Every structure is written in structure tokens, then in C-alpha cells.
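Reviewers of the previous submission asked for a worked example of the structure-prediction workflow described in the proposal, so we include one complete record here. The input consisted solely of the amino acid sequence. No template or homolog information was supplied to the procedure at any stage.
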Amino acid sequence: MRFGTVRVGQARMAAEERDGRWYALDVPPGTPLEAVLATGLGATTATRRLDGAVPVRPLRPGKIVAIGLNYLDHIREAGMERPERPLMFAKFPSSVIGPGEPVVIDGALTGRVDWEVELAAVIGAPIRHASPAEALAGVAGYTVANDVSARDLQFADGQWTRGKSLDTFCPLGPVIVSPDELGDPQALRLWTRVNGETVQDSSTAEMLFGVGELLAYCSRAFTLEPGDVVLTGTPWGCGEFMTPRRSLRPGDTVEAGVEGIGVLTNPVEGAAR
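From that input alone, the workflow returned the following C-alpha cells.
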């Protein structure tokens, strides 16, 4: 199943994608996707075809849990030691945008904005004190995330929340794909293109801790709830670690893609004065 949120005219609605066309989920008008997940996606049907539907932000997560240094190729390029356990941080839900929306850079606040393509797990059932297999059973689906990062703030602060949580710094979409349709989450190609140039190109097989391990680790500390999103790390190719260093600038276009899901495209703009 491929599902998400679309805009038709001024209305937003939870919907299912089939063969490139969108069909409204049979839920009360205006019901956000995170509410559908909380009551059970499996109980819904989608029969009404939506003409002119445009994918938007798929959901507003209750919390966004992110994992740093989880790809072996990224660890090598950063010249860092392998973490002994998942390196966890948070992004604020207010940072989420959808496909086509601009990543906005406030040049008075940050000058080193980086891209990070990630496989994002969308939680569909409460997960607490779970084994890796049990945790995977609680995943509603997977989507593409771009963990946009203000590197100067991230490294100056000593912790990562502010540099990772600026408004518009968590694009998600364009669609969520159920686990049964996507297949093995540890065998997916993922990539980033900036202005058409490929800058990241790797595989989820490079993860140090697999998706099930990450979710189980989180669940030992706190409950993962329906509508939460877990970002599972990024591979090599971040601009911060290139020589010379590269950063996003207003006028750029970023495309983040994951095999079997699709491509998440966002323009980059400067903050209005």
C-alpha cells in the first residue's frame, strides 16, 4: 500500500496511491493521517478517485527521533569512531514540510546548511520494550526524509537539536509505502541530487544498526506511538565533509530518493526580510 496526504483545491485529505492515481481514504473529511494511523490504517478503504491531487506533507509527527552516524560509509567519511550504541537526537515536529515546499535558510543564523537523505520509519502501532522483530511489526510504512542540518549551529552548540530543528529542515514524502510492499528495509538504494548532481548514492545495507534494532533500542527508553517518525541515518556524501566544503544556497534544488518509495524534491530559498 502507498498512502499519504494530498491537496485537492484547498482541501487536504488522507489518501492511497494506486497506479499513480490518488483515492481518498474513507474517513471523515479533514481527518489527518496521524489520526488514521492511531485508529488503524487496515480498517480503511479508498474508493473515491481524486482528480488533481497533489502530495503534501504526509503527516505531522508527534515526535521525530533521529539517529546519527548510522552508516558505515558516513562514519568513514567523517573520520569518526563507530558508535557502540545508536546515537539518538530529536527534531521538532515544526520542522516538517512536504514535497515541493521550500527549505528556507536564514543567512543571519546559519551559513552551513547540509543535506542528508534518510529512510524514515512511520510508526503505526505503539512500540514499547520490543524486540527488533516486534518493533518492525509496529511500522505502518516508510517514507523519504531529508534531515537538513545547520552544521555551524550543530557543532557550536554541543548538542544537535537546534541545528537540526530549524523551520523547514525536515522534508518528508512524497508517499508512505507499507512494509509488505517495500520489502527488506536493509536492501534499498538511497541518493541525493543537488541541482541535478548526485552527491549521495548508497544503500541501507550500510547501516550500522538496522531499522529493527533502532526501533527496539528506542522502545526500551520511551514509547513510540502511531504517527511518530524515526529517521534512520544518512550515508556518505554530505557537503560538510567534502573538500572544499559545500553547503546549500538559495536557488538550489534538492532531490532525495529511496528505492521503492520515490523522490522528495524541495527548492531552497532565503528567508524573507
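DSSP finds seven helices and 19 strands in the chain. We consider this example representative of the routine output the project will generate in years two and three.
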